[in-house]
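step: validate -> pass
step: tokenize input -> pass
step: predict -> running
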Amino acid sequence: MYAEGAPCWVDAELPDVEAGKRFYGELFGWTFEEAFGSSVWARLDGDLVASLAPKTDGRMPTVWTVSFATPDAAALGRRITAAGGQVVMAPFPVAGLGVAALATDPDGAVFGLWQAGTHPGFERRYEPGTFVWAELYTRDTAAANTFYGELFHEALFGSGAEPDFGRADVSEVFPAEMPPHFLTHFRVTDLDDTVGAVQRLGGRVQVPPFETSYGRVAVVTDNQGASFAVLRR
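step: predict -> pass
step: emit ->
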């Protein structure tokens, strides 16, 4: 089980799940199987690493969403509201796998909550082809540090804690008008080759490779417009 505040899962909401399977299967070597509803599990060498789901409303964005672990999604939702955030989708059960919710921080960045049932979250991470980092791009990093520090103090600052999400000013990488958001990072062995593969598979480069404190990164979109980052450490 993941400690409260640890990124424990990522999922993509896509217009066309079959197209997503082709793109990510080729890019990361993922295989897929039916999950719940019309969603599919993504596996790497048999281990669960992500999920893809069809968008239920065409007006919703095509996105990757990172979810943070919690033992009690309802209680965490109340703390989020008290700290100035919002719960935009109240906790709901997911096919016996756990309880999910969707929230925003005070600046509007969206993130998920996951209260594990039979599905604890990632079975593999930090390796090539899997989740490695989530970066919050925000307009007020000091306020973000206060908000997330209050919610997830132990995961961020506890003894021996190794945070796997960070905070940066949105204008450091993106245009100032870009809304605050979490950017899911997947680890790769060769950044330039991966960027080339993204383009060959119908995706595009949003931000060419650049250096960060946690590795060399490029921001890309898949063949349906969902943004994510690839990271070489």
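step: describe -> Residues 15 and 55 are 5 Å apart (CA to CA).
step: cleanup -> pass
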